Amino acid sequence: MQLDIHKPILDLNDRLAAENRARLDEHGIYLLDLLASPGAGKTSLILASIERLRQRYRIAVIEGDIASDVDSQKIKAQGIPAVQINTGGACHLESAMVKRALDALDLSQLDLIIVENVGNLVCPTDFYLGEDAKVMILSVPEGHDKPLKYPGIFQVARAVILNKIDTMPVFDFDERAFRQSVQDLNPQAPVFPLSATTGKGLELWVQWLAGEVDRKSEPDDS
Predict the structure, then answer these.
(1) Highest-confidence range of 1-10, 18-27, 87-96, 116-125, by mean pLDDT?
(2) CATH of the domain at 135
(3) Residues 6 or more apart in contact with residue 123 via CB below 8 angstroms
(4) Can you tell me the distance from the alpha carbon of 174 to that of 19, in angstroms, rounded to the nearest whole number?
(5) What distance in Å separates the CA atoms of residue 84 and residue 62, rounded to the nearest whole number?
(6) Could you report the per-residue pLDDT of 90-102, keeping only the tens digit for each?
(7) Which residue range is the domain that position 75 belongs to?
């Protein structure tokens, strides 16, 4: 007899995620789930995005890490509400964790919540948190072949960010091959080449995200 323990775990996660989604929809809040490897630049991108959007939207951040609160402290230093989730070894966030983080935030005062998921290219793919979109960040130093090695995370992404393009001259990164791999896996996902530290290319990403948040807040006439 073979027991599939994966399905019950995901079923429970999805039920709680649906509750998260209903709660966020009630308040008109857009939830963005950022996925990437460790060191790809998630926190840098969040800080750069906050800088460009904080006058337009009320923003909070949920930080997921195996340990420490280094990243959440960086967010709080900018005057942005941040909730730290330490997974204690788990390689991804789950909807129950996000539910507890939502409990700690004043949802009536928010338009956008950015989740920085645990740095991993496999585990977070299967776990729905109640988000409006998952966005994948790949940095140039990681190599252009990552979509071939980790197709699942690129397939679930609503958009793909190519970060650290300022390092392109010193790495053997084939942007054309990378774009083609993403196109083959997920033809609907736009690719945003940018540098979170220098600001190059950030405006197109910020415009895309603002459009997503605005659509969430628009009244449904149906």
Answers:
(1) 18-27
(2) 3.40.50.300
(3) 90, 91, 92
(4) 42
(5) 6
(6) 788 999 999 999 9
(7) 6-215
d(CA 92, CA 115): 11
1 found inside a domain: no
Instruction: Let me know if residue 77 belongs to a domain.
Output: yes
CB within 8 A of 17, min separation 6: which ones?
95, 98, 127, 128, 129, 130
Buried b (16+ CB within 10 A) or exposed e, 180-216: ebbeebbeebebbbbbbeeeebbeebbeebbebbeeb
| pTM, 2 dp | 0.92
Domains held by the chain: number:
1
Rounded Cα distance, 133 and 138, in Å: 16
Query: Is 130 a domain residue?
Result: yes
Report the run of H or E that residue 29 belongs to, with start and end: none
For residue 31, give the nearest of 85, 101, 92 by alpha carbon: 101
Q: Answer whether residue 222 is part of any domain.
A: no
Phi/psi of residue 163, each to 5°? -95, 165
In terms of residues, how long is the chain? Answer: 222
